[in-house]
Amino acid sequence: MRFDVITLFPAQFTALTEEGVVARALQRRIAEIHLRNPRDDTTDVHRSVDDRPYGGGPGMVMRYAPLRAAIEAARAEAAAAGVRSRVAYLSPQGERIHQAKIARISAAPGWVLIAGRYEGVDERLIEDCVDEEWSIGDYVLSGGELAAMVVMDAVIRLLPGALGHADSARQDSHANGLLDCPHYTRPETIADQRVPQVLLSGDHRAIERWRLQQALGRTWQRRPELLQERGMSDVEQQLLDDYLREASRSRPSVGAEQSEQ
Ligand code: 4FV
């Protein structure tokens, strides 16, 4: 998988490319990230990449021409390497990204990502050159670089061979539309807190069942809308009912608010 990132701050990406799962995936050629600064695609003596907004108002807007030139150059380089890349712009106006979308993004051979700065980019650049617009959340960043890194990290870790244990991506939270179950490691006891007995049982079916029940219960309590979206099998509904009954027994308050819903 190939990413070409159009950015005024290429050095920021060392946070992603120097260490960790993504750095290892790059070393293993499971993915590649190319950074391109649109300032290198300017033609004027001031190498200007931004200008004042028509209609006045605060801030600056990224200019059309340097961005278009950078996108076309990046797509041409990718095509020369046999990769047909689609173009995505990271912005708060984009489609909200979630795990299912990340999985779809990871299925494409290549993406050119535009990391905006200032107030954003000239709208005509989006109309003429952008295939998809993505948002990582309803808040405003000072630049699209962090958003591009978030997307690339979430995508690259899904690629075959990127994670040590192939299964771990499949067991991810959100991978099955649920929040993740609790995790424990040594020591077995901390103060009076013991690791749930089932996890010490060696009974993998019981452990799987407990982890699913925990994921269902926590999703119900913390993100009920995800469960509405996802739906549940009869077995899962039964597991959730048992979880909530157990929860209301151990923490009466839990019962109270449930009945209200
Ligand atoms: C953003 C987001 C985001 C907006 C103005 C960059 C900034 C500045 N990108 N999801 N939320 N972008 O806040 O993707 O140009």
TrEMBL record:
Assigned keywords, A-Z: Cytoplasm, Methyltransferase, S-adenosyl-L-methionine, Transferase, tRNA processing
Compartments in which it is found: Cytoplasm
GO CC aspect terms: cytosol
Organism superkingdom: Bacteria
InterPro entries, per database record: Alpha/beta_knot_MTases (IPR029028), tRNA_m1G_MeTrfase_C_sf (IPR023148), tRNA_m1G_MeTrfase_TrmD (IPR002649), tRNA_m1G_MTases_N (IPR029026), tRNA_MeTrfase_TRMD/TRM10 (IPR016009)
EC number: 2.1.1.228
Residue sites binding S-adenosyl-L-methionine per the record: G116, I136, G137, D138, Y139, V140, L141
One GO term of the biological process aspect: tRNA N1-guanine methylation
Keyword Cytoplasm included in the entry's annotation: yes
Keyword Isomerase found: no
Swiss-Prot/TrEMBL catalytic activity: guanosine(37) in tRNA + S-adenosyl-L-methionine = N(1)-methylguanosine(37) in tRNA + S-adenosyl-L-homocysteine + H(+)
Domain tRNA methyltransferase TRMD/TRM10-type positions: 1-228
SUPFAM superfamilies reported for this sequence: alpha/beta knot
Molecular-function GO terms, alphabetical: tRNA (guanine(37)-N1)-methyltransferase activity
Principal subcellular localization: cytoplasm
Gene3D superfamilies for this protein: 3.40.1280.10, tRNA(m1g37)methyltransferase, domain 2
Free-text function comment from the UniProt entry: Specifically methylates guanosine-37 in various tRNAs.
HAMAP family for this protein: TrmD (MF_00605)
Subunit record text: Homodimer.
Stated family: Belongs to the RNA methyltransferase TrmD family.
NCBIfam families listed in its UniProt record: PRK00026.1 (NF000648), trmD (TIGR00088)
Name assigned to this protein: tRNA (guanine-N(1)-)-methyltransferase
Organism, as annotated: Halochromatium salexigens
Gene that this sequence comes from: trmD
